[in-house]
Amino acid sequence: GHALREHALAVLANSIGQLSRSGSKDELPVVLSESNELLSVLADDITNVQKKPNDAYEASRCLNKLLEASDAAKLDAKAQGVLTLITAMQRSGGCRHAKMERELNAAAESLSHVV
Q1: What are the phi and psi torsion angles at 95 (to 5°)?
Q2: CA-based R_g, the chain, Å
Q3: Cβ atoms within 10 A of the Cβ of 45, count?
């Protein structure tokens, strides 16, 4: 179960990134139509970094790819308080995973420009 979730998150992050890079923006709405629900799941995984650091890292990669791919996802993430969550984690030192910290910094940077 645990390893499968980590792999599924990795595949999702890679798929969103590939669709975005290849210009296959037509395929993205299918993934992004559920962005509210997906963002909620990713946020839960990210906050669970102490128990499942690899899942949290892959969730942060997914979050970042989603934000890079879609302005609508950025608006949804901002509305759901994802930036607040990231900022709180950064201030508390709750994230001790270097790669995840880079992903969260990039996500925070993306979200800080959303009005």
Answers
A1: -110, 110
A2: 13
A3: 22
